Amino acid sequence: MSDGFDEQGEERRPVLRYPFEATPQPGSGETVEVAPGVLWLRMPLGGSLAFINVWALEDGDGWTIVDTGMRTEPTAAGWKTAFAGALAGRPVKRVIATHMHPDHVGMAGWIRRKFGAELWMTRLEYVTCRLLAADTGREAPEDGVRFYRAAGWDQAAIDNYTARFGGFGKGVYPMPDSYRRISEGEDILIGGRPWRVVTGSGHSPEHASLYQPELKLLISGDQVLPRISSNVSVFPTEPEADPLTDWLTSLARIKTMIPDDVLVLPAHNDPFYGLHARLDALIRGHERGLLRLERSLAQPKRAVDVFGALFARPISGDVLGMATGESLAHLNCLQRRGGALKETDADGVTWWRAA
Ligand SMILES: [Zn+2]
Predict the structure, then answer these.
(1) How far is the CA of 71 from the centre of ligand 1 (A)?
(2) From start to end of the chain, where are the E strands?
(3) Per-residue pLDDT reduced to its tens digit, 238-257
(4) Residues within 5 Å of ion ligand 1 by Cβ?
(5) For the whole prediction, is pTM greater than 0.90?
């Protein structure tokens, strides 16, 4: 659920440089040292994303871990191998989660149990994670059914939604009942070096990236990915949300705060150079999407009718929710800019047209 769609086409792909030939095998416990005291590991994921990158930072007599992988047996096995091997049997003192998606925070509770490690997160990410995990076992809410019906889903898609509702908690080991809040602008001292918290919003509510100026490193989580664009979605809990404006603002802000010469350590794909070019390309990609979307609304359309304007690949069952949420993010943004209007018909279906 964490990430968006593979990007197609050269025009959207800036010139990025990937300095590492060797990559750690997902779930193997292998590490690659990307900078002094900064180790790169990969944990396996099911689905279209094969793995997540996680980071172990030397921290005195132990480790600070940034992101943890999804709650699965292969991930637990990967960590056990790493702890016994490359991490030299030293304890994890602290886990920092960039944000609350299961592939990032899923094993935080497990690592906490194993080592007594503290969990450090921004407040909105921690609270939202606890909230979504608490949906486990609940019935799908009527608000959610109404939301997806308004977007144009048929009964089969609605049934699938109600059957799978509450699945978030399956990928997350029970969360620690307390945490240490991290905030925008804070310097976290890890192994004697300050790592600056840089927050962003849109993919998740208060995502934290970590910037280390001496080593010229940016652990970017899902805020900046080199080859895929992170999912930016509207959800039934807040149908009028405009996360795309938040996202575009966050990307532009990071460009003003982080120099271009950092090595970016993203949660997916490979570490890369070319931060500013990538930020520009991500912003440009969404702006082009908004233009295509506005043109497509010459005829009234439902959210499910605009996929072709926004996505290069066909949308089928497993990504329908993500595509619908992302389409609504673009539609709400366009409406906020004065480019689109919506009307809801007698069946509760919302129709969008260019303003
Ligand atoms: Zn994510």
Answers:
(1) 15
(2) 32-35, 38-44, 51-59, 62-66, 92-96, 118-121, 180-181, 187-190, 193-200, 207-212, 217-221, 263-266, 340-344, 350-354
(3) 999 999 999 999 999 999 99
(4) 2, 101, 222
(5) yes
